[in-house]
Amino acid sequence: MKLYILFTILISSFVFASNAQQQQFIDKAMVEYEVKTNIKKTMGNDSWAEMMKENLPTFKISYYQYTFANNQSIYKFNRWDEKSKLPEYMRRDDEANNWFFDFNKNKLITQKNIFGSTFNIEDTIPTINWVLTNESRNIAGFNCRKAVGKIFDSVYVFAFYTDEIMVSGGPCSINGLPGLIMGVTIPRLFTSFIATKVSINGVAFNDIKPTTAKKYYNNAFIKNTIFERTKDWWDGGDDKEEAQQQKNRFVWSLML
Fold first, then answer.
1. What is the pLDDT of residue 235?
2. pLDDT of residue 18
3. What CATH number has the domain bearing residue 246?
4. What whole-number distance in Å separates Cα of residue 65 and Cα of residue 48?
5. What is the DSSP string of 91-140?
6. CB 72: neighbour CB atoms within 10 A?
7. Which of 180, 98, 195, 184 is nearest to 139 (CA)?
8. What are the residues whose beta carbons fall under 8 Å from the beta carbon of 74, sequence distance 6 or more?
9. How many domains does the chain have?
10. What is the pLDDT of residue 12?
C-alpha cells in the first residue's frame, strides 16, 4: 500500500512538473489582444471635434491576433468589438495593417494603409530602451512584470511581459523585452493593449509570413511622407499646443 501511494505521488509530481514546464516555455502560440482607444480624447476639444463626438462612441475597441513560431511572428487585425459602431473611415486602416517580425534577421515588414494608400515597409526591428520595475500582475493566466520604455523620443510606454512565453515581441512594433508583452498602455495615444487569451492548439502557423509587394519603403521615407503631407494640418486654430498634440498623435499612430 505504501509503495502504491509513493508511486502515485511520483506520477502526480511528474505530471505537474511537465505541465508547469510546458507553460513556462511556450515557443509557439497565438495570443489575442483587446485594443482599446478613447477616440474622443484623441480628437481634441475644438468646436469641430465636439460636433463629431456627438455621433461617435467613446471607445474604439478591436481584437488583434499575434501568432508566433520559429522566432517569427505576425500581428494583424481579427475583428471589431460587437458593440463598436464606428464609421468606415475609422475602420479601414486597422483592417488592412499588419506587422511581420523575423527576429533571426532583425527585420520588420509591415503593411499600412496611410492616406488611403497601401504602403509596404521593410526595415530593422526598432530598438526600445526599457527599464524593468518590481511591479507585477497576472494577465490571461500568466505572471507578468512591468517595464517602462520610450518610443518616438518622448512617448512613454508602460508594458507588462511574461518570460513564460519565449518571444521578444508584442502588439504593433512594441518589442525588446525578455518575453512576450501581454499588456501595453500608451497614455499619450489614449490606447491600451491587453492579452485576453493564449492558444497553443489549432493555430494557423502557416499564416506567419509577410505581405509580399513589388516595392518596399523604409521607415525614414514613410516618416518624411507623413510629415510632408500633414505640414499644413491643424493650422489656423487658436490653441497651437493642442494642434501640435493632434498632429503628433496622428503621426505616432501611423508609425507605431
1. 66
2. 40
3. 2.50.20
4. 35
5. THHHHH-EEEEETTTTEEEEEEEETTEEEEEEEEPPP--EEEEEEEEEET
6. 21
7. 195
8. 66, 67, 68, 98, 99, 100, 101, 207, 208, 209, 210
9. 1
10. 43
| C-alpha cell recorded at residue 115 | 492616406
With cell 480628437, the residue in question is 43
pTM, two decimal places: 0.86
Contact 207, 67 (CB under 8 A): yes
Distances (CA, A) of 127 to 2, 99, 151: 58, 15, 9
Please name which of 115, 82, 83 lies closest in space to residue 96, comparing C-alpha atoms. Answer: 115
Range of the domain at 229: 25-255
Average pLDDT over residues 108-112: 97
Give the CA angle between residues 189, 193, 198 to the nearest 5°. Answer: 170
Average pLDDT, the chain: 87
Give mean pLDDT, residues 101-120.
Answer: 94
